[in-house]
Amino acid sequence: MAAHPLHLLFVPHPHNNHKPKILWHQSILVLFGLLIMGRSLIDIFSGVRPGILGFASQIAPEKVIELTNQERQTNNLPPLTYNKELSDAAQVKAIDMFANNYWAHVSPTGTEPWSFMINSGYNYLHAGENLARDFSNPNDIVVAWMASPTHRRNILDGRYKDIGIAVVDGYINGVETTLVVQMFGVRQSAAAEVASGNVVSQVYAQEIPKVYPATTISPFDAKKSWSIALVTIIILALALDWFFVWKNNIIRISGKTWAHLTYFLTLAVILFIIRQGLVL
Amino acid sequence: MRAQIAKKHLDYLVLLIAAALAIVLVLVFASNKQLVSLVVISFSVFYFLWGIIHHTFEKSLHPEVVFEYLLYSVLGAFLIIGLI
């Protein structure tokens, strides 16, 4: 009696030469092709329909500020207050990074972050800047900053009173990127404050529009889901193969299923660990 | 016979230690993409070599087996590398 195709695909049987068809060399090559094809389709789709697949999927600046303040409160520090001048400075800095194609605190022309603050009318006594790119959600950004000693120091610096943030989507070196610029500061004395206040109203009378698209899925998450789906199929097939080979005491020329399972389970754990995004 | 079984268990232990080490290193270097890539590629190359050595000692090395480990190692590495 002929076995069911699904049975032949996943269970060792005389009709599949005692090896599930999905674990045949040809099938592994097909899975490899599907992996590459799936990723290419996601890349093409995110290029053609950037409104659906984009990096700035769920990064709301307010949420980044909220999470930053949560970290400060956990460490018994007062929360930072949103400051429009700092946010404008962060916005101009992000736009400058796209315009001049760089990913650094200091621009190729030597412009430091502090000059963006001064130009936006924020006369600082102490100031700091955290950068992040390509994250798909605000939580991962703050977690990555807190994991880095220098960024953590900025977030937990008791001298800072104000915070400004910008989330801007664009291209750096031809790659679609979402930049998150976070600026911290504390103003100088009240006398200097009044003097700089006049400059603000003259130079930045117009508000710079925020450019973060309201998209739902990041290409990274889509590709990661595709990889997880494929690795799950392979692990399932290997687990079934291992069980039936053991149960039926099958002897065949093949690699060790138990070892393959260990290898792919390790990769599955790594798949869950890796996150998108860089901090600077 | 007993020595052969002990050797097999040692092989599996080495593989398990390598797998655990790969996971720990990825956790430690999570924010450094180059190092994560290096860990994944090293683990995949290690797995391929582990398969060859294990089957050589078991006297069950066959070109088909070598190709199988090669396929799995390359597929496994690509599953992760394309994402980093």
From TrEMBL, chain A:
It comes from the Bacteria. Signal peptide: none annotated. Gene3D superfamilies: CAP (3.40.33.10). Residues 66-182 form the SCP domain. InterPro entries: CAP_dom (IPR014044), CAP_sf (IPR035940). The chain crosses the membrane at residues 226-245, 257-274. Coiled coil: none annotated. This is SCP-like protein extracellular. It comes from Candidatus Collierbacteria bacterium GW2011_GWE1_46_18. The lineage of its organism: Bacteria, Candidatus Collieribacteriota.
